[in-house]
Amino acid sequence: MKMVAPWTRFYSNSCCLCCHVRTGTILLGVWYLIINAVVLLILLSALADPDQYHFSSSELGGDFEFMDDANMCIAIAVSLLMILICAMATYGAYKQHAAWIIPFFCYQIFDFALNTLVAVTVLVYPNSIQEYIRQLPPNFPYRDDIMSVNPTCLVLIILLFISIILTFKGYLISCVWNCYRYINGRNSSDVLVYVTSNDTTVLLPPYDDASVNGAAKEPPPPYVSA
Questions:
Q1: Are 59 and 139 in contact, with CB atoms under 8 Å apart?
Q2: 215: Cβ–Cβ under 8 A, 6 or more apart, which residues?
Q3: Are 93 and 26 in contact, with CB atoms under 8 Å apart?
Q4: Do residues 97 and 183 lie in contact, with contact meaning Cβ atoms separated by under 8 Å?
Q5: For burial by CB atoms within 10 Å, which of 3, 37, 162, 179 has the most?
Q6: Is the pTM for the entire model greater than 0.70?
Q7: Which residues 6+ apart lie within 8 Å of 150 measured at CB?
């Protein structure tokens, strides 16, 4: 016979390196927070000095601008939004507020769906890879070496690489989801499940309710000697 909590019966509360899902979600949120902060600094520096990201025709075979002001502002807004989402997930996992983790989880699902669409596009239109490589600048690193690879082998290598990325992203999604369920279960339920030997379960009331109900009962009548 064993006393178990309902939020630990159907999912794991541990992730990579044998740490708790809360710890893993906090580390993941901090990591994404650092990455988006670095991206934001790069975008702000590019907005402050546009000439630094303007490449001449001799460098790329054609006049090319890294990003115009409108797209730069959109990218900065997206970076700020991502920093907010990552900060909310980190704070929610640390303070055990499950609702704060939902935006970060939705972002993970959206990112996973985009990578899945990329994999499907590569699988359905394998020639698009070669066309994309041909559009790269002539002095792009390893451009000629990639063009010399057999198209079928190139598609298989890219699909293998995307599959590894999708597997890793799926694992991170499960980590965040288990953290959400763990926190949500702990915050919303204090009921324990009593599992008997014949596979039947009995819900036990919370300890506070049992104590109050027990204290509310009238005491037994006093003992009277004969």
A1: yes
A2: none
A3: yes
A4: yes
A5: 179
A6: no
A7: none
